[in-house]
Amino acid sequence: MIMTPKTKGNWFTRFWSRLRLESRWLVPGTGYKRWLVLSIIGAMLLGLGLAVIILEYYRSTTSEILTPILAFLSLRFLDRPIRFLLFGGLGVIVILIGIWGANRSLLKPFEKDGKPVWDRLQHYRQREKGIKVVVIGGGHGLAALLRGLKAYTHNITAIVTVSDDGGSSGELRRDLGVLPPGDIRNCLSALSSDEALLSQVFQYRFQSGAGLEGHSLGNLLITAMSEITGSFEEAVAESGRVLAIYGQVLPSTLFDVTLVGEVQKIGEPEPQIIHGESQITAAEGKINKVSLDKENVQAYPPTISAILNADLILIGPGSLYTSILPNLLVKDLTEAITASRAETYYICNVATQRGETDGFNASQHVKVLESHVHGRFFNLVLCNRNYKGSLGEKTNWVVADQELHENYKVYEADLVDDLYPWRHSSKKLAKAIINLFEERTGPVF
User: Fold this and answer.
1) What pLDDT, in 10s, does the model give residues 391-400?
2) Residue 134 in contact with residue 310, Cβ under 8 Å?
3) Fold for domain 127-441?
C-alpha cells in the first residue's frame, strides 16, 4: 500500500493519541511510577550482572571467531557514551513495552462499561487518599449520604444508633438478644463497592415463610455472624468484608439500650413516659425529650478514635429524635465531637417527619439537639433551599428561618431528590458537602 500524506497523518494521529492515553499511567497519584522505576532498576542490575560475565569471558577468550563477533555486538567502534545511550534507551523501551503488554493482558478482564482501567485506578487512588469523614445518625437519610460520599473518599466511618426496636431488627433483638442490625445493614449496603447486585441480595426482605416473613437477609446474616464470631462488632466488620465496603460502620455503643421518650399527648395535662423507639413515634403527641434507659452508657472505643482523627464530622440527616439523638446521648461520643479539631456540620432534614418534627423549621431542629447535648457542638448548619415538588399530606419543608441565620453559620443549597423531594439526593448532598469543605479548608485532593 502506498503511504499517502492522508494515511500517514491518520496513522500518526492514532499513534499519538494512543501514546497520550497510555502515558496517563505516569501522572501523579496512581502509585504506578514507583513500581515502574523499581522494575527498571531491577532490569538494570540484571543487565549489569550479565555484562560482568560477558566482559570476563570476552577478556579471557582467545577465539579468533568469537572475539570479532563480541566486539561487533558491543559496538566497540562507537564511543562509550553513544553506546550507553543506545543500549540504555533500547533497554528502557523494551521494558516499557513489556510492562505495557503485561498490563493489557492482566487488566483487560477488569475493564467495565468500556472505561479504561486507568480511570478506575486513578479515581480509586484519589478516594483512598480522601478526607477522613465521620457520619453520625441512622435510618435511610444516613445511608443516602454515605452512598454519595463514597464517590469522593473511602475514609468513611458511619456511627449508627443501636436503639431500634421495631420491625425485623426489633424482633431479632427480642428473640435472640443481639443488637438491632437494621440501620447498620443499610449503611453497609450503601458503602458496598457493588450495589448493583450484592447489596441488593443483602437488602432482600422475605415476603413469606414461617419465621422469615418480614426479615431481611442482611439482618439474618449479621445475626448469624454474631453467633459465629461471638461478638456483634466483629459480625459487622465481617459483613463489611463480604460486601467489600468503602470505609467502616460502627455501632455508637455495645450496650443494650432502649430509647425513652417524654411525650405530651393531646388533651392530657401531664406528659407520658414511653419506652421504645417504635412506640415513641407511634404515640400521638409532641415529643418533649428523649433519653436512654441506662446511665453512663459508654461509647464503642473505635468510634471515639474515628471522631478524634476525623477531618470532617457530619451529624445527620435522619430522624431527629430516633436516629440522631440516640447517638448523641452517649456522653463519651458527644465529648469526643467537642474535643475533635474536625469541621463539624449538622445536616438538617429536607422535610418534617410525622410523629417527630411536625411543623418544625431548621432552628427548632437545632434547638432540640442543643437542649439534649447541653451546648453547641457543630460549626455550621447545612440546609436545603429547593422547595419545589409535592411532599404529601402533613409534611412540610424544613426552612432555614431568620432565627437560624442570626445565630448560626448556615449554608444553603439545592439538596432534594428530584423524584422523591422529601429526601436528600445522595449526589447533590455529597457534592455540596465536599465543595463546602474545600471552600473552608482548601482542596481535598
Assistant:
1) 888 899 999 9
2) yes
3) Rossmann fold (3.40.50)
